[in-house]
Amino acid sequence: MAKPRKQKNEEQKPECSGGVVLHQKLCVSIDMVKRRIYGYTELKMTIPEGGHVALHADNMTITNISVDGEPADFEYFPLYQVVEEDRFCSVSCSSSAANVACSVYTSSLDKEMVPNLLIACNGSVKLDQPQEKENGRNSVQDSCSQQNEKLVRIDYWVDRAETGIHFVDNALLTDNQIRRARCWFPCLDSISQRCPFDLEFTVDVNLVAVSNGDLHYQVLSKDDPPRKTFVYKLTTPVSAGWISLIVAPFEILSDSHNNIISHICLPPSFSKLQNTVGFFHNAFSYYEDYLSTSFPFGSYKQIFIPPELTISSLSLGASLCIFGSHILFDDRVIDQVCYTFNCEICSFPFKIMFLYRHACKCFWST
């Protein structure tokens, strides 16, 4: 098995994975005391003829990789950010400084596009000779495509991460900034790669793990002390950047008028939450009627957390939104403000739909 090593030259890195992720399962345990997450991810992938796939993984330690249950060789080179000091030596004014900073930034983005986890998937199928076609399609290629589907499992852990996932007091929050999903789970971190997800998160029994998709069930372990696993299923294909996780000792308020909506906050803000979201279902229905379409996911969760815990004022994920709790209000606020506020926050889940549709349009037009 390969060990993490220093970064290679750019010409040695794979330019693209060549594979396609059909489904991804993520099983992670969270240790709030040690500020660590650990577990594994399984990716059902189609493997290219070369027999290698390349993924994105940064800020983590990879302990083992297997393909269809068999140990696999891999190479992992973390994306260290090297400051190009020579460029800044030529800075003579504010204008040239801005140009250099922009050049360094775009160069860093280009480097992040390159996958840095190369996996050898032995036994991939190669076509050595032309095949006959049936009904306008290559039947042998279809069967080979099925044979080329492999299950890639990656065991890993992330310790005291500096980006992508953040621990604050007794809470954990992931960061949906551009290309930061790779900082807390291995994936194909590209908007053109979309698939369904199965998500399992194990936390202390007094905590709640909120993530994307529908919550199927919770499992209480027999450990001492006991821990709880939250199992989510997201059937709508999305890219890895839309996957979110937030863990804290939450209180949950199910919407009494629309069973797909859940409102979530910390206990001190619960009374304000009840007052704030009382009108929300009306605004939600208004947007569905106005757009002549239903919400594209099977559930919608909106989470309100203290401003000091937030990475930004608003964070969007597939089927959920994260807000600062400072926007909650008590019963002394006049009705017109309540109406305006609910219409504003209700627009965010539908912005998810617009962004998702735009991503799909861009994907299918390529």
TrEMBL record:
UniProt cross-references to InterPro entries, sorted A to Z: Aminopeptidase_N-like_N_sf, TAF2
GO cellular component: transcription factor TFIID complex
Gene3D superfamilies (alphabetical): tricorn interacting facor f3 domain
Biological processes annotated in GO: transcription initiation at RNA polymerase II promoter
A GO term, aspect molecular function: RNA polymerase II general transcription initiation factor activity
PANTHER family tied to this protein: TRANSCRIPTION INITIATION FACTOR TFIID, TRANSCRIPTION INITIATION FACTOR TFIID SUBUNIT 2
Protein's name according to its UniProt entry: Uncharacterized protein
Organism (species): Ensete ventricosum (Abyssinian banana)
